[in-house]
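Lab meeting, item 3. Inverse folding demo.
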């Protein structure tokens, strides 16, 4: 009988506790402001994260604590997650087929992690949770299991991870809507006009990685189902900030990445309906995906594939990565989304209010200034190249933000008044200080962000616009960097 990972390993060594299934808070619908609560919770401080004590040098002299404001790219790991991983690491073993004590223990931990993620997402009882490398891997996996005659509908506003995987299928790209209601109307028209009538999939983000704005997922799911289509949601920017309910939103699949959910290592999730996953050939062929393999008399090979999530998890799985994702799910649930959301709303308002005081700053928005959002905002500064501005924030203030097109080129081009069909590169291949470019600056934050980091950012934006950079910069390998002579 396998050892249970929530029991002490031996009396002589420290025990570790695997992430038991989390208790999910009440489902939240993004149709209304999901941050609103009946009683305003008390806002606690930031959750402890790795790197909170790191200092970085300034080109102007001295050092300052690093202000990590690039959560939308990769959030720092929660200290709690790191501690859980460190506690488990001595007991690491191969999973599923090992007879040894540590292998059995690791197998239980891996499968318990799957249960924890399912609870965190409020999945239906028959949904499958598949561990992948990231959101990109999850959506490419789903693209590989779609029926051969499936048509895909995707808005041009998507991150490339959800915009590009469908190339092997018939794809209808939808124009950027300027209101949530228009998004639903656009989808309904496109689905009503499709011919021939067959299987269809809608792919949409839950929260934009460029503007942070929330999309009307429930209404889009209802529209998809009314026209015989299914829907997959890219929740990479949503689940680190708000509770997500597969059951309540009535979506068919959801995908997200661990590295945006305060978990280190390369692990992601695809969760949802099992039928298309079971009917398709494995995403990867190999050990773990196969239940039985035998040679045929004609010299070929007969394979019986698993019908469980293992069907699409060939090879030795990233056990520590899966455990890290589950530990993050549990940590956020126990911290309480009401408290986390309330504090993040204050940070969002602080950033928006500070940027509004600088006339040269334009915050990018698809649905309008009043649209509910998570802690992700993109902007441009009149008279500044975005790469130059981001470089000055880093070199002179110790603030890490992101500049470019954020792997959402058509959306950023549209928001900046360019042609969404125009080819462009992230970064600043021709960037010169003071020269305008069709790139933007993104600031993003979350549960581990101290107030001081946001306050420093707002102050730095005002000072740079008012006084200019205190250092000279040049372009090097497509990036604006301090000129050190």
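The presenter then showed the designed sequence:
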């Amino acid at each position: 009988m396998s050892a249970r990972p929530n029991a002490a390993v031996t009396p002589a060594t420290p025990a570790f506790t695997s992430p038991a299934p989390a208790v999910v808070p009440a489902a939240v619908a993004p149709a209304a402001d999901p941050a609103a609560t009946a009683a305003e919770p008390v806002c606690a401080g930031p959750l402890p994260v790795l790197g909170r004590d790191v200092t970085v040098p300034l080109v102007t002299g001295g050092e300052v604590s690093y202000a990590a404001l690039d959560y939308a790219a990769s959030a720092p790991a929660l200290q709690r997650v790191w501690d859980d991983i460190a506690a488990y690491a001595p007991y690491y073993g191969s999973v599923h087929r090992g007879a040894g004590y540590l292998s059995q223990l690791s197998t239980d931990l891996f499968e318990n992690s799957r249960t924890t993620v399912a609870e965190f997402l409020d999945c239906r009882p028959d949904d499958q949770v598949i561990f992948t490398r990231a959101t990109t891997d999850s959506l490419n996996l789903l693209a590989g299991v779609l029926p051969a005659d499936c048509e895909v509908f995707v808005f041009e506003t998507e991150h490339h991870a959800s915009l590009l995987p469908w190339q092997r299928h018939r794809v209808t790209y939808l124009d950027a809507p300027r209101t949530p209601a228009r998004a639903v109307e656009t989808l309904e028209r496109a689905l009503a006009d499709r011919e021939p009538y067959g299987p269809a999939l809608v792919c949409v983000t839950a929260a934009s990685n460029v503007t942070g704005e929330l999309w009307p997922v429930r209404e889009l799911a209802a529209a998809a189902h009314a026209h015989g289509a299914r829907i997959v949601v890219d929740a990479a920017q949503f689940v680190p900030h708000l509770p997500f309910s597969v059951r309540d939103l009535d979506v068919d699949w959801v995908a997200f990445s661990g590295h945006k959910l305060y978990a280190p290592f390369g692990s992601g999730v695809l969760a949802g309906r099992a039928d298309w996953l079971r009917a398709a050939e494995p995403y990867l062929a190999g050990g773990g995906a196969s239940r039985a393999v035998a040679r045929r008399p004609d010299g070929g090979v007969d394979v019986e594939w698993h019908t469980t999530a293992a069907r699409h998890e060939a090879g030795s799985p990233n056990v520590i990565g899966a455990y890290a994702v589950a530990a993050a799910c549990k940590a956020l649930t126990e911290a309480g989304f009401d408290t986390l959301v309330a504090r993040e709303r204050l940070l969002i308002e602080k950033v928006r209010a500070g940027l509004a005081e600088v006339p040269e700053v334009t915050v990018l928005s698809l649905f309008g200034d009043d649209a509910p959002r998570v802690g992700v905002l993109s902007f441009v500064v009149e008279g500044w190249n975005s790469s130059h501005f981001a470089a000055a924030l880093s070199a002179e203030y110790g603030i890490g933000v992101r500049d470019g097109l954020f792997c959402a080129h058509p959306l950023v081009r549209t928001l900046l008044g360019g042609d969404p069909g125009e080819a462009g590169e992230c970064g600043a291949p021709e960037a010169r200080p003071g020269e305008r470019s069709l790139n933007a600056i993104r600031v993003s934050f979350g549960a581990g962000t101290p107030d001081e980091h946001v306050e420093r950012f707002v102050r730095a934006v005002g000072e740079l616009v008012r006084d200019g950079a205190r250092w000279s910069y040049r372009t090097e390998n497509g990036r604006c960097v301090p000129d050190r002579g």
